[in-house]
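Exercise 7. Predict the joint structure of the components listed below.
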Amino acid sequence: MKTDVLIIGGGPAGLSAAIETASRGLDVTIVDEASQLGGQLNQQTQTLRPLPSVYEPMRGFELAYKLIEQIKGLSVKPLLNHRVVGFYADGSAGITDEENVFPVKAKKIIVASGAAEKAVAFPKWTMPGIMTIGAAQTLINRDFVMAGREAVIVGSSDFAMETAMQLMAVGTRVKAIIEKQSEVSAIDQEKVSELSRNGIPFYFNSFIKEVRGNGQVEQIDIELPDEVITLNVDLVCMDGGRMPILDVFYQLGCSFGFQEELGGWVPQYSNTFQTDREDVFIAGNAAGISTQGPLLLTGMIAGISVSEELQAIRSAEANEMRETLWKELGLLEYKEVYSGRVKHLENFTSPILKDQFIS
Amino acid sequence: METNYETIVIGGGVVGSGIAYHLSERYKEGVLVLDKKYPMSGTSGSTQAWVWVHNKTPSWYAEFSMYSAELYPYLSKKIGDVEYKRTGGLSPFFNESDREKAEKLAESYRKIGIKIKVLSREEVLEKEPYMNPEVAGATYSSIDGNVNPFRLIDMYMRAAKRNGVRYSTYNKVTEIKKHDGKYAVVSDNGAFECKNLILAGGTWSREIGDMLGVKIPVNQLRGQILVSEPLKPFLNFTISGLRQANNGEVLMGYSMEEAGFNRATTLDVIQETANMAVQYVPGLRKAKIVRAFSGIRAMPEDGFPILGKVPGHENLYVAATHSGVTLSPLIGTLITELIMDGETSIPIDRYSLSRFG
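Solution:
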């Protein structure tokens, strides 16, 4: 199979890259392991803001719908329930439908593989009923299954605050937010105050000492600064932050740098979102953990750069559009993340990890 | 760090560490091993680690390999458990027409005392019930087996260090000079001096030889290996192409490609390898592959080990070979004898670098 542009990952960044490329007449293939496009947007019921100026603020699943609407009628072939498992010697991607593996030869590849959640380990943390906040969100919003009746949340990021509120909205009693630092890590203080108003205690400088239960979590011990308290819960949601998913970049032989603000190890890329492999571009959380607005912008920039490389748009026009989008990125993205991204770009020619397959 | 040594070994892989350990049995001080990365990060850590004698040709090379395989049980007693298992080796064939070739191989081995049986289809399936029932037969050798390469090298290193051998790792040799009958070895972390210098650089042998103006014709060959999820123990033998490790994972791979030092894996070879594995053991079709990796192997130009003194250079020795895991106990023993006694207990003239002219 042949295609102009192979997009790996059909989440917000992959879809916005698809819109930019396919709308300029390029033939696009999107591969995604899920059964529907949209990625994490599908279980995000919260209103996303700020979004790029072309979008009104809207809920996550509405944005997914809106993005998918825009590729309708364009030459975009979604390969759902498919995964990229490796690459052939001639550079073709090896894609599996879990039965067979077949090659897809693309002129350019955009990798928008997204982020993976990190867990927080404590004694007996593998017990059923203990999951990441993303897993809890997927259960309640996508699968319409209650994740538990009485819960604690470990961590206090924006995502954790969001999930706490969504759990409450479906009737789960959130008994505590446990944070090992001395203050919340969420930037959006509004949600924090709303949770406080609902009487949910925040335990700072605290962590889970142990969990107990017969076949599933029933009770937890929380180590507070000056005492240990015990709560009865059937759900523990943990938020260890997220990190870019890098497997495909590794297989493609891309270089990496380490940027704390972007989530740790991140593939190196230039301001066109081109990696150091000239046929490979990057977009979305894979290029640094961020929020939905900025993620869409990275997908748009990558899509424009690929369109330029494949001569579907003139360079002058591409440069102008990229400049505008970068400006918007600077406005929409959390300052810390944006400055991490700028630092990361500067390291493009001096990556920490390169030529990993050369012994 | 001490800069003066009796002997320096360049390369801490299975060959270099094997030599260093065997040397340390005879003298307790004055051995330094230099490694550009860390032992096991190169060829020695990316192998199926067969200890393999049968179907090596010609028969004198098989004989040499057999002597080394025979040293393994004794080696384990000295350095500790290296998970060496003399499983026996099976090399299946699927065409009846290959039987004659197998008989000829067995006959040539018989002359030098290596016992190889040519098995019928029924005998193969009795030994290895999960083998493809369409198999025509197999050659079988009882001395073949495998070892855990990580344990092997780790145990070599521990035993060598206990005996006083020093290791300097993540330390690349950049220059070698000869003066006043000694060798000055310049590395990233300083210069060292020694009387005896042993080149055990594996895939980098050619590059290291160049530093002394010595041509060591060793090329790189890439081998790709697949690893299955852990499965219940079901394969009894080391099969040419695959084996089951102690933890249940099945290692599969027989590929050889020229790719320089590029250790990437490719789906072309991964699919070929999977097809080979499924042809041998159809049940593997249901197994999940959890990992694929490549190893760059050393391959002397004529395929045979390069061992012994470097002609025209006093106190300079070379040990560069394919099948380093199989041969390491023997090479370690022989190079030690050569340095300490000036001669070896079995002749190694055939393996001299001088054969390349």
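Discussion. The first strand of chain A starts at residue 2 and ends at 8.
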